[in-house]
């Protein structure tokens, strides 16, 4: 049996929290560079895209946050078979996130009372624990800014919905986000399960790579969504040129015969996540 220590997992969370807020995800950085190269004509959109690349470079070199909204931390822990955790995992992760944000000088953005608000602090984060058939255990940390999070969407589709209708609804939810969600976007989609499962899958799909081998479901739906959203001409920061989406990933799960949950979670051009192998 593989025994994972809660303190060691929390230390990995600490390192990831700082790293993802200072270093733009490499697949996203490459996608932004590709888009910049393809936009040969001088324009405001190309100029702003250059600024996004410069911002990533300055953040990395100077140890400054990519965005003033350093997000709400979401932790995905995938425990391999015959694995268990020793210690109070939630407590240690909460402490690690608060320490990371304080040490790095990141903004305190979390209110513990969602209705009456109060003074903002550094946590707690959202923690998801899953069990897999793999021998290995993995940790993924996502810092989710709320300019894009506020544009999340859930639609309970009819079980008779066609692939074309599903594509249309995904495109509608993405394009309705508009420039206020800071395009170009990275988009996660969850299809199936229950309403909460679909939202979870959409959030997790944001952390999948947008380049290389596709790890999601329904590549044909993914490709059509990318084509149609980019044809909408929202463009870089809503300026009408360049890609509106850099990548879309879809995760799916079995669902009830009477339903078809569909969730969309939008990430901005500085979508920040990291996945590491623990054991």
Structure description:
The chain is an alpha/beta fold. It has 2 domains: 102 residues, hypothetical protein PF0899 fold, CATH 3.30.2320; 128 residues, 2-Layer Sandwich (60s Ribosomal Protein L30, Chain: A). It is built from 8 helices and 10 strands. The strands form 3 sheets. The chain has a 4-stranded mixed beta sheet. Helix 1 packs parallel to helix 4, helix 2 packs antiparallel against helix 3 and helix 6 packs across helix 8. The chain is globular and about 55 Å long. The mean pLDDT is 96.
Concise synopsis of the structure shown:
It contains eight helices and ten strands.
The CATH class of the largest domain is Alpha Beta
Residue runs with pLDDT of under 50 for 5 or more positions: none
Mean pLDDT over the residues: 96
Alpha-beta classification: alpha/beta
**How would you describe the shape?**
globular
Q: CATH architecture of the largest domain, please?
A: 2-Layer Sandwich
Going across the biggest sheet, name each strand in turn.
Answer: 4-2-5-10
Number of strands: 10
Q: How many angstroms does the end-to-end distance come to?
A: 11 Å
Question: Biggest β-sheet: count, sense, barrel?
Answer: 4 strands, mixed
The third-level CATH topology of the largest domain is 60s Ribosomal Protein L30, Chain: A
Our Rg estimate from Cα atoms comes to 19 Å
Query: Count of helices?
Result: 8
Share in β-strands: 15-25%
Helix residue percentage: 25-40%
| Helix-strand topology string | EHHHEEHEEHEHEHHEEE
């Amino acid at each position: 049996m593989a025994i994972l220590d809660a303190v060691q997992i929390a230390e990995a969370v600490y390192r990831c929290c700082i790293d993802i807020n200072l270093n733009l995800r490499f697949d996203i950085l490459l996608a932004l560079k590709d888009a910049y190269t393809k936009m040969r004509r001088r324009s405001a959109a190309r100029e702003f895209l250059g600024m996004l690349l410069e911002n990533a470079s300055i953040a990395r070199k100077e140890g400054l946050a990519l965005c003033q909204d350093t997000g709400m931390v979401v932790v995905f822990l995938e425990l391999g078979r015959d694995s268990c955790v020793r210690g109070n995992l939630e407590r240690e992760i909460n402490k690690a996130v608060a320490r990371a944000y304080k040490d790095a000088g990141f903004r305190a953005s979390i209110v513990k009372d969602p209705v009456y608000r109060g003074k903002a602090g550094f946590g707690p984060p959202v923690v998801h624990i899953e069990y897999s058939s793999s021998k290995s255990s993995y940790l993924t940390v996502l810092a989710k800014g709320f300019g894009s999070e506020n544009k999340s969407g859930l639609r309970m589709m009819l079980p008779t919905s066609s692939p074309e209708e599903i594509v249309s609804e995904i495109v509608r939810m993405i394009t309705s986000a508009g420039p206020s969600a800071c395009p170009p976007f990275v988009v996660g989609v969850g299809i199936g399960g229950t309403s909460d499962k679909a939202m979870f899958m959409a959030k997790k799909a944001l952390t999948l790579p947008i380049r290389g081998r596709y790890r999601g479901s329904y590549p044909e739906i993914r490709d059509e969504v990318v084509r149609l959203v980019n044809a909408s001409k929202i463009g870089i920061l809503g300026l009408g040129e360049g890609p509106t989406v850099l990548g879309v990933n879809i995760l799916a799960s079995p669902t009830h015969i009477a339903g078809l949950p569909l969730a969309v979670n939008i990430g901005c051009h500085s979508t920040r996540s990291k996945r590491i192998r623990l054991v």
